[in-house]
Amino acid sequence: MKKVLTIAGSDCSGGAGIQADLKTFSAHGVFGMSVITAVTAQNTQGVFAVQDISREVIAKQIKAIFDDIEVDGVKIGMVSQVEIIQTIAEELRRYQPQMVVLDPVMVSKSGYHLLNQKAETTLVKELLPLALVVTPNIPEAEVITSLRIKTIPEMEEAAREIYQMGAKNVLLKGGHLEEDSIDVLYDGQEFSYYPSPRIATKNTHGTGCTLSSAIASNLALGHDLKEAIALAKDYITVAIEHSLAIGKGVGPTHHFYTLYKKAGLIE
Ligand SMILES: Nc1ncnc2c1ncn2[C@@H]1O[C@H](COP(=O)(O)OP(=O)(O)O)[C@@H](O)[C@H]1O
Ligand SMILES: Cc1ncc(COP(=O)(O)O)c(N)n1
Protein backbone atom coordinates (compact mmCIF):
# COMPACT_ATOMS: atom_id res chain seq x y z
CA MET A 1 0.00 0.00 0.00
CA LYS A 2 1.28 3.49 -0.83
CA LYS A 3 1.93 5.77 2.15
CA VAL A 4 1.03 9.47 2.01
CA LEU A 5 1.72 12.13 4.62
CA THR A 6 -0.08 15.38 5.34
CA ILE A 7 1.72 18.16 7.21
CA ALA A 8 -1.11 20.51 8.18
CA GLY A 9 -3.45 21.88 10.82
CA SER A 10 -6.33 20.10 12.53
CA ASP A 11 -9.90 21.27 11.79
CA CYS A 12 -12.03 19.93 14.65
CA SER A 13 -15.19 20.21 12.53
CA GLY A 14 -13.76 17.70 10.05
CA GLY A 15 -14.22 19.68 6.82
CA ALA A 16 -10.72 20.98 6.09
CA GLY A 17 -7.10 20.48 7.24
CA ILE A 18 -5.76 17.14 8.47
CA GLN A 19 -9.25 15.63 8.68
CA ALA A 20 -10.08 16.39 5.01
CA ASP A 21 -6.63 15.15 3.98
CA LEU A 22 -6.94 11.79 5.77
CA LYS A 23 -10.44 11.21 4.34
CA THR A 24 -9.10 11.98 0.85
CA PHE A 25 -6.18 9.56 1.33
CA SER A 26 -8.58 6.81 2.46
CA ALA A 27 -10.87 7.41 -0.52
CA HIS A 28 -7.83 6.94 -2.80
CA GLY A 29 -6.79 3.66 -1.17
CA VAL A 30 -3.51 5.01 0.20
CA PHE A 31 -2.32 4.79 3.82
CA GLY A 32 -2.65 8.21 5.45
CA MET A 33 -0.25 9.71 8.02
CA SER A 34 -0.26 13.16 9.64
CA VAL A 35 2.14 15.69 11.12
CA ILE A 36 -0.04 18.20 12.97
CA THR A 37 1.28 21.77 12.84
CA ALA A 38 -1.56 23.48 14.73
CA VAL A 39 -4.86 22.68 16.41
CA THR A 40 -7.66 24.99 15.32
CA ALA A 41 -11.06 25.48 16.93
CA GLN A 42 -13.28 26.03 13.89
CA ASN A 43 -16.54 25.00 12.32
CA THR A 44 -18.54 25.80 9.20
CA GLN A 45 -19.04 29.36 10.45
CA GLY A 46 -15.57 30.50 11.46
CA VAL A 47 -12.19 29.95 13.13
CA PHE A 48 -12.25 30.74 16.87
CA ALA A 49 -8.80 29.78 18.17
CA VAL A 50 -5.45 28.41 17.00
CA GLN A 51 -2.80 26.65 19.09
CA ASP A 52 0.42 26.13 17.17
CA ILE A 53 2.39 22.97 17.91
CA SER A 54 5.98 23.58 19.05
CA ARG A 55 8.71 23.32 16.43
CA GLU A 56 10.36 20.53 18.45
CA VAL A 57 7.23 18.38 18.36
CA ILE A 58 6.69 19.11 14.66
CA ALA A 59 10.29 18.07 13.89
CA LYS A 60 9.88 14.92 16.00
CA GLN A 61 6.68 13.94 14.22
CA ILE A 62 8.43 14.26 10.85
CA LYS A 63 11.44 12.30 12.12
CA ALA A 64 9.25 9.56 13.63
CA ILE A 65 7.63 8.99 10.27
CA PHE A 66 10.61 9.26 7.91
CA ASP A 67 13.01 7.25 10.12
CA ASP A 68 10.61 4.33 10.06
CA ILE A 69 8.37 4.44 7.01
CA GLU A 70 8.92 4.93 3.28
CA VAL A 71 6.82 7.94 2.29
CA ASP A 72 5.40 7.91 -1.26
CA GLY A 73 3.79 11.35 -1.23
CA VAL A 74 3.57 14.47 0.95
CA LYS A 75 1.02 17.25 1.10
CA ILE A 76 1.75 20.46 3.03
CA GLY A 77 -1.15 22.64 4.20
CA MET A 78 -1.47 25.12 7.10
CA VAL A 79 1.98 26.07 8.45
CA SER A 80 1.11 29.12 10.67
CA GLN A 81 4.37 30.99 11.16
CA VAL A 82 8.03 31.56 10.25
CA GLU A 83 9.62 29.13 12.78
CA ILE A 84 7.26 26.31 11.84
CA ILE A 85 7.98 26.80 8.13
CA GLN A 86 11.73 26.79 8.78
CA THR A 87 11.46 23.59 10.82
CA ILE A 88 9.43 21.78 8.15
CA ALA A 89 11.81 22.95 5.40
CA GLU A 90 14.86 21.78 7.39
CA GLU A 91 13.37 18.33 7.97
CA LEU A 92 12.23 17.93 4.35
CA ARG A 93 15.68 18.95 3.11
CA ARG A 94 17.04 16.15 5.33
CA TYR A 95 14.65 13.43 4.12
CA GLN A 96 14.18 14.69 0.54
CA PRO A 97 10.74 13.32 -0.39
CA GLN A 98 10.18 13.73 -4.14
CA MET A 99 6.40 13.94 -4.45
CA VAL A 100 5.56 17.06 -2.44
CA VAL A 101 2.38 19.05 -3.05
CA LEU A 102 2.38 22.48 -1.38
CA ASP A 103 -0.99 24.09 -0.68
CA PRO A 104 0.01 27.60 0.46
CA VAL A 105 -2.91 28.00 2.91
CA MET A 106 -3.20 31.65 3.95
CA VAL A 107 -6.75 32.72 4.84
CA SER A 108 -9.75 30.51 5.72
CA LYS A 109 -13.00 30.85 3.73
CA SER A 110 -14.34 32.70 6.79
CA GLY A 111 -11.52 35.30 6.56
CA TYR A 112 -9.21 34.13 9.39
CA HIS A 113 -5.43 34.41 8.79
CA LEU A 114 -4.22 30.82 9.20
CA LEU A 115 -0.73 31.94 8.07
CA ASN A 116 0.87 34.85 9.91
CA GLN A 117 1.24 37.56 7.25
CA LYS A 118 4.91 38.02 8.20
CA ALA A 119 5.46 34.39 7.14
CA GLU A 120 4.15 34.73 3.57
CA THR A 121 7.58 35.43 2.07
CA THR A 122 9.18 32.68 4.21
CA LEU A 123 6.70 30.16 2.85
CA VAL A 124 7.62 31.10 -0.72
CA LYS A 125 11.35 31.15 -0.04
CA GLU A 126 11.62 27.96 2.04
CA LEU A 127 8.88 25.62 0.87
CA LEU A 128 8.32 26.49 -2.80
CA PRO A 129 11.65 24.99 -3.95
CA LEU A 130 10.92 21.73 -2.10
CA ALA A 131 7.59 21.13 -3.83
CA LEU A 132 6.87 19.35 -7.11
CA VAL A 133 3.74 21.47 -7.43
CA VAL A 134 2.29 24.44 -5.56
CA THR A 135 -1.50 24.93 -5.57
CA PRO A 136 -2.48 28.53 -4.67
CA ASN A 137 -6.06 29.74 -4.97
CA ILE A 138 -6.61 33.16 -6.55
CA PRO A 139 -6.36 35.25 -3.32
CA GLU A 140 -3.13 33.39 -2.38
CA ALA A 141 -1.65 33.93 -5.85
CA GLU A 142 -2.53 37.62 -5.53
CA VAL A 143 -0.62 37.82 -2.23
CA ILE A 144 2.39 35.92 -3.64
CA THR A 145 2.64 38.00 -6.84
CA SER A 146 0.96 41.32 -5.87
CA LEU A 147 -1.03 40.96 -9.13
CA ARG A 148 -4.80 41.37 -9.42
CA ILE A 149 -6.34 38.19 -10.85
CA LYS A 150 -9.84 38.05 -12.36
CA THR A 151 -9.41 36.36 -15.77
CA ILE A 152 -7.69 33.32 -17.27
CA PRO A 153 -4.91 35.42 -18.91
CA GLU A 154 -4.29 37.03 -15.49
CA MET A 155 -4.12 33.54 -13.94
CA GLU A 156 -1.55 32.57 -16.59
CA GLU A 157 0.54 35.65 -15.86
CA ALA A 158 0.50 34.96 -12.11
CA ALA A 159 1.36 31.27 -12.63
CA ARG A 160 4.37 32.33 -14.72
CA GLU A 161 5.53 34.69 -11.95
CA ILE A 162 5.21 32.04 -9.25
CA TYR A 163 7.13 29.61 -11.49
CA GLN A 164 9.92 32.19 -11.74
CA MET A 165 10.06 32.34 -7.92
CA GLY A 166 11.31 28.74 -7.90
CA ALA A 167 8.26 26.50 -8.20
CA LYS A 168 8.68 23.44 -10.43
CA ASN A 169 5.00 23.47 -11.37
CA VAL A 170 2.20 25.89 -10.48
CA LEU A 171 -1.48 24.90 -10.34
CA LEU A 172 -3.49 28.09 -9.93
CA LYS A 173 -6.99 27.10 -8.77
CA GLY A 174 -10.02 28.87 -10.19
CA GLY A 175 -12.57 28.23 -7.45
CA HIS A 176 -12.73 31.99 -6.78
CA LEU A 177 -13.45 32.96 -10.41
CA GLU A 178 -16.92 34.27 -11.20
CA GLU A 179 -17.57 31.94 -14.13
CA ASP A 180 -16.60 28.27 -14.55
CA SER A 181 -14.08 26.81 -12.13
CA ILE A 182 -10.95 26.42 -14.27
CA ASP A 183 -7.63 25.43 -12.71
CA VAL A 184 -4.50 26.40 -14.70
CA LEU A 185 -1.20 24.45 -14.59
CA TYR A 186 2.10 26.00 -15.69
CA ASP A 187 5.13 23.71 -15.91
CA GLY A 188 7.59 26.29 -17.20
CA GLN A 189 6.87 25.39 -20.82
CA GLU A 190 3.14 25.26 -21.39
CA PHE A 191 -0.24 25.76 -19.77
CA SER A 192 -2.74 22.96 -19.14
CA TYR A 193 -6.35 23.65 -18.19
CA TYR A 194 -8.64 21.70 -15.88
CA PRO A 195 -12.15 23.09 -16.29
CA SER A 196 -15.41 22.24 -14.55
CA PRO A 197 -18.73 24.08 -14.59
CA ARG A 198 -19.27 26.13 -11.42
CA ILE A 199 -21.37 24.06 -9.01
CA ALA A 200 -23.97 26.21 -7.25
CA THR A 201 -23.34 25.41 -3.59
CA LYS A 202 -22.10 27.24 -0.51
CA ASN A 203 -20.60 24.01 0.85
CA THR A 204 -16.98 24.30 -0.23
CA HIS A 205 -15.21 24.06 3.13
CA GLY A 206 -11.95 22.19 2.57
CA THR A 207 -11.97 22.08 -1.24
CA GLY A 208 -8.34 23.24 -1.52
CA CYS A 209 -7.17 20.78 1.15
CA THR A 210 -8.99 17.97 -0.62
CA LEU A 211 -7.62 18.80 -4.08
CA SER A 212 -3.99 18.93 -2.90
CA SER A 213 -4.36 15.66 -0.96
CA ALA A 214 -5.92 13.97 -3.98
CA ILE A 215 -2.98 15.13 -6.14
CA ALA A 216 -0.48 13.79 -3.56
CA SER A 217 -2.36 10.45 -3.46
CA ASN A 218 -2.38 10.14 -7.26
CA LEU A 219 1.35 10.97 -7.47
CA ALA A 220 2.07 8.31 -4.84
CA LEU A 221 0.01 5.84 -6.88
CA GLY A 222 2.37 6.42 -9.82
CA HIS A 223 0.46 8.86 -12.04
CA ASP A 224 2.40 11.64 -13.73
CA LEU A 225 1.62 15.19 -12.60
CA LYS A 226 -0.88 16.07 -15.34
CA GLU A 227 -2.76 12.80 -14.86
CA ALA A 228 -2.64 13.21 -11.07
CA ILE A 229 -4.21 16.67 -11.36
CA ALA A 230 -6.89 15.56 -13.87
CA LEU A 231 -7.95 12.70 -11.58
CA ALA A 232 -7.89 14.99 -8.52
CA LYS A 233 -10.05 17.53 -10.35
CA ASP A 234 -12.61 14.79 -11.13
CA TYR A 235 -12.53 13.75 -7.47
CA ILE A 236 -13.06 17.27 -6.06
CA THR A 237 -15.83 17.96 -8.60
CA VAL A 238 -17.82 14.90 -7.44
CA ALA A 239 -17.06 15.79 -3.80
CA ILE A 240 -18.46 19.32 -4.32
CA GLU A 241 -21.46 18.09 -6.38
CA HIS A 242 -22.44 15.92 -3.42
CA SER A 243 -21.22 18.27 -0.69
CA LEU A 244 -22.90 18.03 2.69
CA ALA A 245 -25.20 20.60 4.29
CA ILE A 246 -23.62 19.95 7.70
CA GLY A 247 -23.54 22.89 10.14
CA LYS A 248 -25.00 26.38 9.75
CA GLY A 249 -22.32 27.86 7.46
CA VAL A 250 -19.99 26.66 4.71
CA GLY A 251 -20.43 22.87 4.79
CA PRO A 252 -17.86 20.20 3.84
CA THR A 253 -17.44 18.15 0.68
CA HIS A 254 -18.35 14.44 0.35
CA HIS A 255 -15.20 12.32 0.18
CA PHE A 256 -16.77 8.92 -0.33
CA TYR A 257 -19.64 9.50 -2.75
CA THR A 258 -18.30 7.26 -5.52
CA LEU A 259 -17.20 4.53 -3.09
CA TYR A 260 -20.50 4.53 -1.16
CA LYS A 261 -22.45 4.49 -4.40
CA LYS A 262 -20.51 1.46 -5.69
CA ALA A 263 -21.06 -0.30 -2.36
CA GLY A 264 -24.81 0.38 -2.55
CA LEU A 265 -24.70 2.44 0.66
CA ILE A 266 -26.42 5.40 -1.02
CA GLU A 267 -29.11 5.50 -3.74
N1 LIG B 1 -18.28 26.10 -6.88
C1 LIG B 1 -17.37 25.28 -7.44
N2 LIG B 1 -17.71 24.50 -8.49
C2 LIG B 1 -16.81 23.66 -9.08
N3 LIG B 1 -15.54 23.56 -8.65
C3 LIG B 1 -15.13 24.33 -7.62
C4 LIG B 1 -16.01 25.22 -6.96
N4 LIG B 1 -15.33 25.84 -5.94
C5 LIG B 1 -14.08 25.34 -5.97
N5 LIG B 1 -13.94 24.44 -6.97
C6 LIG B 1 -12.73 23.65 -7.29
O1 LIG B 1 -12.24 23.18 -6.04
C7 LIG B 1 -10.81 23.20 -6.03
C8 LIG B 1 -10.34 24.12 -4.90
O2 LIG B 1 -10.43 25.44 -5.38
P1 LIG B 1 -10.48 26.78 -4.58
O3 LIG B 1 -11.84 26.94 -3.99
O4 LIG B 1 -10.02 27.83 -5.53
O5 LIG B 1 -9.39 26.52 -3.45
P2 LIG B 1 -9.34 26.94 -1.92
O6 LIG B 1 -10.21 25.97 -1.16
O7 LIG B 1 -7.90 26.81 -1.60
O8 LIG B 1 -9.87 28.35 -1.84
C9 LIG B 1 -10.40 23.66 -7.42
O9 LIG B 1 -10.22 22.52 -8.24
C10 LIG B 1 -11.60 24.46 -7.90
O10 LIG B 1 -11.68 24.53 -9.30
C1 LIG C 1 -6.69 23.62 9.54
C2 LIG C 1 -7.15 24.24 8.27
N1 LIG C 1 -6.38 24.14 7.17
C3 LIG C 1 -6.80 24.69 6.00
C4 LIG C 1 -7.99 25.37 5.92
C5 LIG C 1 -8.42 25.99 4.62
O1 LIG C 1 -9.57 25.39 4.13
P1 LIG C 1 -10.17 25.64 2.68
O2 LIG C 1 -9.72 24.48 1.85
O3 LIG C 1 -11.65 25.66 2.86
O4 LIG C 1 -9.61 26.94 2.14
C6 LIG C 1 -8.77 25.46 7.09
N2 LIG C 1 -9.95 26.11 7.09
N3 LIG C 1 -8.31 24.89 8.25
Automatic annotation (TrEMBL):
Molecular function (GO) terms listed? ATP binding; hydroxymethylpyrimidine kinase activity; phosphomethylpyrimidine kinase activity
Q: Determine the domain of life of the protein's source.
A: Bacteria
Q: What is its EC number?
A: 2.7.1.49, 2.7.4.7
Write the record's keywords in alphabetical order, separated by commas: ATP-binding, Kinase, Nucleotide-binding, Thiamine biosynthesis, Transferase
A Gene Ontology biological process noted in the UniProt record is: thiamine biosynthetic process
Class in the EC hierarchy, top level: transferase
Which InterPro entries does the entry link to? HMP/HMP-P_kinase_dom (IPR004399), PM/HMP-P_kinase-1 (IPR013749), Ribokinase-like (IPR029056)
Question: GO cellular-component terms in the record?
Answer: cytosol
Per the record, a Pfam family?
Phos_pyr_kin
Catalysed transformations (reactions): 4-amino-5-hydroxymethyl-2-methylpyrimidine + ATP = 4-amino-2-methyl-5-(phosphooxymethyl)pyrimidine + ADP + H(+); 4-amino-2-methyl-5-(phosphooxymethyl)pyrimidine + ATP = 4-amino-2-methyl-5-(diphosphooxymethyl)pyrimidine + ADP
Q: Where is the Pyridoxamine kinase/Phosphomethylpyrimidine kinase domain?
A: 11-254
Tell me the route in metabolism or biology where this protein functions.
Answer: Cofactor biosynthesis; thiamine diphosphate biosynthesis; 4-amino-2-methyl-5-diphosphomethylpyrimidine from 5-amino-1-(5-phospho-D-ribosyl)imidazole: step 3/3; Cofactor biosynthesis; thiamine diphosphate biosynthesis; 4-amino-2-methyl-5-diphosphomethylpyrimidine from 5-amino-1-(5-phospho-D-ribosyl)imidazole: step 2/3
Similarity comment: family membership: Belongs to the ThiD family.
PANTHER family the UniProt entry points to: HYDROXYMETHYLPYRIMIDINE_PHOSPHOMETHYLPYRIMIDINE KINASE THI20-RELATED (PTHR20858:SF17), PHOSPHOMETHYLPYRIMIDINE KINASE (PTHR20858)
Recorded hits in NCBIfam families, A to Z, give:
HMP-P_kinase (TIGR00097)
Protein name from the UniProt record: Hydroxymethylpyrimidine/phosphomethylpyrimidine kinase
Organism annotation: Desulfosporosinus orientis (strain ATCC 19365 / DSM 765 / NCIMB 8382 / VKM B-1628 / Singapore I)
